[in-house]
Design a protein that fits this description.
mainly alpha, 159 residues
C-alpha cells in the first residue's frame, strides 16, 4: 500500500525528480489535461473533482510515510491545480503553454488565500487546496486572455 500511496502522491514518482519537482508534476498535469480535454465539461469537472479527492487522500498518507508536511515529492496537487487552470478552456498549444506558465507563477507566489491555506491548513486537503486556488487564479486570467484575444480578432476582422 505504501508504494501505491507514494506513486499516486508523487504522480508516478515524478515528484522524486531532483530539480523543480513541482514543475515536473505540472508537466504530468499537462499530460492528464490532454487526456481529459476531449471530455464534455461535466465529465471533465467530475473527473477533476474525483482526482482532487484522491489527491487529498494520497497526500495526507504520503505526508505520514515521508515524515514531512507538504513534501516536495508530493506533486499530485500540481496535477489537480493544472486541471483547474485549464477547466472550460480550449485545448490549443497556446492555452496549454500559457496555462502552464500562469499556474506555475500563481503556485509559486501563492496569492491569498493560497498562501494562508499553505501555511495554516494541515493534512491532504491543505496540500491540494492551495494549488486549487492557484489554479482558479490562473484559470480566470487565462479565460480573460482567451476572450480578450477573441475580441481583438473579431474587431480586426470587422474593420
Amino acid at each position: 500500500m505504501k508504494g501505491l500511496i507514494l506513486g499516486l502522491a508523487s504522480a508516478g514518482y515524478v515528484g522524486y525528480f531532483p530539480w523543480a519537482p513541482g514543475t515536473a508534476g505540472t508537466l504530468v498535469g499537462v499530460m492528464v489535461f490532454l487526456l481529459y480535454s476531449p471530455f464534455p465539461p461535466f465529465i471533465y469537472l467530475l473527473s477533476t473533482v474525483a482526482l482532487f479527492a484522491l489527491a487529498c487522500w494520497a497526500s495526507e498518507r504520503a505526508e505520514v510515510i515521508l515524515g514531512q508536511r507538504d513534501s516536495p515529492k508530493i506533486v499530485i496537487d500540481e496535477v489537480v491545480g493544472y486541471l483547474v487552470t485549464m477547466a472550460f478552456l480550449p485545448c490549443t498549444l497556446t492555452t496549454v503553454a500559457v496555462g502552464f506558465l500562469f499556474f506555475r507563477v500563481f503556485d509559486i507566489i501563492k496569492p491569498s488565500p493560497a498562501g494562508v491555506i499553505d501555511r495554516r491548513m494541515r493534512g491532504g486537503a491543505g496540500v491540494v487546496l492551495d494549488d486549487v486556488v492557484a489554479g482558479i487564479y490562473a484559470n480566470i486570467l487565462l479565460q480573460l486572455a482567451v476572450h480578450w484575444r477573441s475580441d481583438m480578432l473579431f474587431l480586426i476582422g470587422s474593420s
